[in-house]
Amino acid sequence: MKLANSPVEQIHVAGHDVFIKRDDLLHPQFSGNKARKFLYFYEQDFPTVKKVLGYGSAQANSLYSMAALCQLKGWQLEFYVDHLPQLLLANPSGNYAAALALGAKVLPAPVSGGEQIASYLQQLAANDPECLFIEEGGRMAEAEYGVAKLAEEIADWYQAEQLSQLALFLPSGTGTTALFLAKYFKQHELAIEVFTCPVVGDAAYLQQQFDQLCANRQWHPTIVAPAKKYHFGKCYRDFLTLWRLLNQTGVTFELLYDPLGWMTLLQTAPTLAMPLMYLHQGGLLGNSSMLPRYQRKYPQLFSD
Ligand SMILES: *Cc1c(COP(=O)(O)O)cnc(C)c1O
């Protein structure tokens, strides 16, 4: 099965030529940065494991990717959520529906709050060799294994193109992908600079995430704070407008992270005299639950 060597394409957006690393094309089900972060679990042998314990949002890309991982490995996924929205229960869509179709069990957590759920599941798994606990969104040291492979592909492409500099942009949730990419390029002394923006919290939160994963700040990516504060998962007119502009290139992006990721690129590009690359981290299935939310909030933008 092919879980590597996603293609690089070039698109033209708002006056910039941008190379796109198409990790959305890795595999129909196991794609994007979650496939990279979970590659370790796919490739390594876990002879006693029968069940994966995960948690997060019922709409999360990581729910779907974990369900795909478990199906490939013959494991049962139990995914715990703080809250299961009524609308979603009545009308399963997007990542949630696709994960159920892959056999995942999505269950209400017996405790509330992310940290409490994590330590509850961690403890369950620690006492049961049949259970494997995976951190929310793949925020863990094991993610470095697959993200380093992604970095190696980008480095190979960069060398084949005979570039001497490259600016790589991607939006961050936990920051795990951006951090391990930057670390790889710094360790291999390549002039590939990683730029990222916080999508889930603010810049201070993202810095904290980086510090937890890697104490050496010289290996951290450059954080670009968005010009204005946006709340994670909310619908913004600016996001939809930019998303539509991006889609005119023929490449479809997603609506949770990509609008801010591209805003960061467009904000920073004029100050950089070097080739630009954007990492497409997948997550397209989430659009089928995000778009109806946009349509309910801004019906006038869907009037044709
Ligand atoms: C999970 C996800 C992210 C965030 O990745 P981190 O490694 O947590 O920063 C970004 N984009 C998409 C499409 C994702 O699914």
From TrEMBL:
Pfam families, per the entry = PALP
Q: What species is this protein from?
A: Shewanella avicenniae
Question: What is stated as this protein's family in its record?
Answer: Belongs to the ACC deaminase/D-cysteine desulfhydrase family.
Q: Does the keyword Plastid apply?
A: no
Name by which UniProt lists this protein: Pyridoxal-phosphate dependent enzyme
InterPro entries attached here? ACCD_DCysDesulf, TrpB-like_PALP, TrpB-like_PALP_sf
What cofactors does this protein use? pyridoxal 5'-phosphate
Question: Which keywords appear in this protein's UniProt record, sorted alphabetically?
Answer: Pyridoxal phosphate
Q: Does the keyword Membrane apply?
A: no
Q: Which PANTHER family match?
A: 1-AMINOCYCLOPROPANE-1-CARBOXYLATE DEAMINASE-RELATED (PTHR43780)
Looking at the record, the residues that make up the Tryptophan synthase beta chain-like PALP domain are 14-200
